[in-house]
Amino acid sequence: xxxSAPSIWRNRNFLLLWAAQAVGQTAQNxxxxxxxxLVQKTTGSAAQMSVVVLTVVLPSVIIGLVxxxxxxxxxxxxxxxxxxxxxxxxxxxxILVPDWLWLLFGVNVLFSTITQFFAPAEVAMLPVIAGKxxxxxxNSLFHITFTASQLGGLVLLGPLLVNLVGVTGLFITVxxxxxxxxxxxWPLPSSHNRLDEGVxxxxxxxxxxxxxxxxxxTDRVIGWGVVQWTIGSTLALVVxxxxxxxxxxxxxxxxxxxxxxxxxxxxxTVVGSLLLSRWGDLVxxxxxxxxxVVALGSALALMALTATLWExxxxxxxxxxxxxxxxxxxxxxxxxxxxxxxxxxxxxAIIVPSQTLIQxxxxxxVRGRLFAVQMVLGNVxxxxxxxxxxxxxxxxxxxxxLMLVGIVVLGAGLAxxxxxxxxxxxxxxxxxxxxxxx
Length: 438
Fold this sequence. Notes:
Blueprint: H1 12-42, H2 46-71, H3 76-96, H4 101-130, H5 135-185, H6 202-218, H7 220-249, H8 258-279, H9 285-317, H10 327-361, H11 367-396, H12 398-417
Helix pairs in contact: 1-2, 1-4, 1-5, 2-4, 2-11, 3-4, 3-5, 4-11, 5-8, 5-10, 7-8, 7-10, 7-11, 7-12, 8-10, 9-10, 9-12, 11-12
């Protein structure tokens, strides 16, 4: 690469979309926190808290593909503005019916359903305003914001607002933030499309889904990228499920202090995103993803192995919990935190390059549907592992379950490096002028 890529920081349209993403996604996560507070105050039931999670996941599975087909037929800018305005309009309902639990669940399903239209439009808009030379950098920065918005909404902004202004004040603030996000998107250029804007019936929508699946099959690189992205997002949920229990049961740390051990994974994610935005274009995308899968599997297996060896050493010297707080225990915690940094870096090195590969190669009028398919696959693919690994962790121990996950991921990464190479170069513009026949 002889010429350096133009600075993303001079791209006004990207900065506006990036700011809108940060504001909108932080507000979205704050809504989830506010609903959890309402449910906890009303019922104190763990089962009801599970329903809260389902109200977020199920809309993606049910309507995600339909949303992608709709987005590809509309101006992405207008979709982004409209979804923010609609979500802001729902905030008074959260405020007016705090004790009507099932009505709140229904409102949150509607809020999450609208978000299904926002997410693919946002991802599909990114190549329009960033361009090929800035795309990897833009994706890296978007991933940083995605991680930071989860932390900001669920851990920082949500609890702070509830303590300062109460749940009602939280929903008012979220409504204002969503209006700000819509205002930031307003100056962006329109994204014109070539598809017929007619209303689709069920048969036409099913045809759109079949088209996307066949389209993925016609391009091995896109198919490979979708698979790797799905694996990365699924593993993120699996590890997020096992990690808190691992920290509490195996390391003997209080649940309220577990965030300090797991936080380095977030540091690794941010550092990895920054490094990719700076030098990611110098590395072959496919090899980077394969190396990241191997690194992630190694980090998870070593976490479990290190903790298991410490437990065995503790049993030889006496009850394991008596070793907590000793120099050896602090060395163990330090090793786990370093491995968490590596795991966070590996996660972002899987997701960001695979997303960039898809954006570079996909036709402009297919991107919305394509990313909607990926989001649905990610949510569907995570259900069985989450349920199965939860049961497995109860049966054989969370440390052993984490080690098993690490070994499987490591094996998958090594197997991927043995497969035939793929041509990951972006197809010429002439090839991107027509859709594959279906």
